[in-house]
Snurportin-1 (Lymnaea stagnalis), 371 residues
Amino acid sequence: MDELTAALAGSFEISNEPNKTSAPHPRFTQYKQRTSNSDQDTRRKLLLENQKNRRFDFLNHIRKLTDGSWNADPKFKQESNIDDSMEVEEKYSKPGRFYKDQLMLSEWLVEVPSDFATEWITVLCPVAKRCLIVASKGTTRAYTKSGYCMNSFPSHLPGGYRKNVEKETTILDCLFNEATQTYYILDLMCWNGHTIYDTETEFRFYWLHEKLKETQSLQVASSTNPYKFIGLPGFRCIQEDISLAVTSAEFEIDGVLFYHKRTHYTFGSTPLVVWLKPYMLQEILGIVVPDHQMCHMPNDYSNYADHMKKVVEDKERDQKKREERRGRRRKVANKNNSSMEISQSEIVEAHENVSESSAATKIHTGPANNI
């Protein structure tokens, strides 16, 4: 019995690293030991406490997104400083430059919080590409997570069309489904120049859906609004509501996001937004998923342990390839630098030879009265 207890306890260990969804689910990687300051619940409490004292110039940030101007601003840097006394995983990330790293990303749900039913909101995510929407100066642009502008078009978002009455900036966190030509809205950060980055999730979601009700034309494709904008609904985090939402979903579910009601919109991954794949719901939350929503389960999937082992092997192989490519690039760069150094040395030596030659010429061809 003791051996069984130990085995079960070991199966619920989590990583010392933040539980980013780009890595395997922590329940299936057991090579790191759990520590008291790495569990998600402790980190959530620290982040919620520290966000009260967070200082960030969001108006200046919106200006940068609107104008595409990323010049250094000492005042901006000073206001965005974070208390260095915090643990590394509890720091708030700064947004990137040139539209990179502007989105709030999730972690794997490792521990079901004790306040899950009362303080969390469920959002079902369709199969789609995550993107940042910036509507300003009569144009709407969509940027990938890495900051690449993947599309530019008119829309009925405030600021997104040159004939709009509302000319100010709108910023959204979206999922783009190419098959349906639809932008599904996950979150709202700014609407018609009014920033709500530093408001709680519950309010942001409420305001998003209120604004969408006021702008019904966003949900219809037209010549001045070629892509539909649909707000994703939120559900209570109780088994009955999640099960009903999954069963009645009208789109193919890629995964399920869980937002803490009290978190502000932050940059980078956070334990205050967590994520599960559909085929993990029964294992972790006890929710049965319809067969038609299990289509993204890998074909060679047999069980969690084997699948995650394969994921780790694939990631390690890809990492090794990236390191080899970086190594080759470094060798080429070092070779080019060496060639440049040799060329510069030759130029200096040639210049010195010319100087010596000129000096010698002056000596032999000086004025006659000096002889």
Summary: The first strand starts at residue 104 and ends at 108.
